[in-house]
Amino acid sequence: MSPHGLATRAVRGMAWAYGAYIGGRALVLISTAILARLLTPRDFGVVAIALVFTTFLDAIKDLGLGQALIVASPEEESARAQTVFSWSVVLGLILTLVTAALSPLAAAFFHQPKLTALLPVLGSAFLLRSLGTTHYALARKHLDYRVRTVSEITEVTVRGVVGIVLALLGLGAWSLVLGFVAGVAASTIALWALVRFRPQPRLTHTHLRDLLSFGGVLTLLDISAVIFYNLDYIFVGRVLGAVQLGLYSIGFRIPELLVLNVAHVAADVLFPAYSALDRERLREGYLAAVRYVSMLTVPLAVGLAALARPVILVVFGDQWRGSIHVTQVIAAYTLCATLSIPPGTVLKVTRRAKMMVIFSIPAVLLLAGLLTVVTKEGILAVALTTTALQASVVPIQTWVVSRQLDVSFWSSVRLLGPPLLASAAMAAVLVPIDHLIGSPVVALLVGIPAGAAVYLAVLALVAREHLRRLVRIAFPGGGPTTEAATGR
């Protein structure tokens, strides 16, 4: 593919991906805000425990076959897609049955009897999702993020509507579970409607060994990531109970929606796009990703930390006041997590994901040891611990990838300077606004535009040309250029 063609498709992919992000996250936020007023922290906590349990199984849902399909050559795509589909469905069925079988054990471990009935229903999502895994992977491979936009917005819309209706009918935690399953089913139907791939009803082994060779490493990486990013939920649910886990999960909700998902969208586009780049352009692409992802996520994280009180009270209500300080800390956590995505994407593309797996083992063990000690101190102590460890991971990953790409470590670090400086100026304005204005609604109405204006003004002073390039990438206008894909 020519550089211009890759750039065109990368920019279009990013536009559709961010369309899905903006539309989907807005719908998630609205539905969650409504459900937070209809349900209790205990309801959210019980479902959070169930979702943590299924998240561990979700890491092996297709053994990385979908990601392996993305890097397949065009000549082998059809045969490999059939293999990926058939084995994904088999694995989806197995995971559905395993979830049902293990539900009594999960209920006993977390001291939550409701899980015995909730988990088998929630586990059916594995089979439903597996039916669309291959279609989603093919859309990613061809940078057709129109499919992502439609399927994700369909999922969150159906999930929200079903959940709210059932909550109004008094179904409590069941409204969240049934809404989730309905959303997955709707997403799969949308994928089949939008992607032409039609599999044959047979189990095939073509290229299976090669697919597993690449996808298996990514699966190990996903498993280690799931453990690392969900240990806090397990400890809070086990030690502090469902109510505290409900507060903790809501403390995560806004930072995850506003900060972490921005970077995940970027990584989702970068993985297939960077798979087509040579080493020199990969270096340029990596530096561009660090620069532009930080320009987007640093102000979001800092702004959210400064305005956590009015955000939580306005969006979720006064019963979630206990989540405010958690939100402030988790804003920093999600920022650190986003900064680890560009180097992680490079390691995946260059087939060096094993390095990330090896590195994750001591990180997981250290986190488990720390949480064993601090969890009894409360959810804020848990948030501080996970954030501190995540912050220590970023410079190590950056150093490893900098050496791999022959880039100075400090060159990567210096890219963070402009957004950090502009965000510090923004925080200097937002913190007094939060303290001086008692009304949460007024604080947001004043703080959001004021903070955005200060950030953009300072960024324009210290990094005007890069800000212009970011605008051109986000809004191509006259047409995409090579710099949109590589950052040049």
Helices and strands: which structural class?
mainly alpha
**Using DSSP, what is the number of strands?**
0
Sequence of secondary-structure elements: HHHHHHHHHHHHHHHHHHHH
Could you estimate the helical fraction of the residues in percent?
over 70%
N-to-C terminal Cα separation, in Å?
A: 18 Å
Radius of gyration (CA) equals: 22 Å
Q: Largest sheet at a glance? A: none
Mean pLDDT: 80
Description:
About 85% of the residues lie in helices and about 0% in strands. It has 20 helices and no strands. The longest helix has about 35 residues, at about 5-40. Mean pLDDT is about 80; it is low at about 1-10 and about 475-488.
Give the topology.
Elements: H1 3-38, H2 41-58, H3 65-70, H4 77-110, H5 115-141, H6 145-168, H7 173-194, H8 208-240, H9 242-274, H10 279-306, H11 308-315, H12 324-339, H13 341-349, H14 353-374, H15 379-404, H16 409-414, H17 417-436, H18 440-462, H19 464-474, H20 482-486
Provide a concise account of the structure shown.
This protein has 488 residues and is an all-alpha fold. It has helices at 3-38, 41-58, 65-70, 77-110, 115-141, 145-168, 173-194, 208-240, 242-274, 279-306, 308-315, 324-339, 341-349, 353-374, 379-404, 409-414, 417-436, 440-462, 464-474, 482-486.
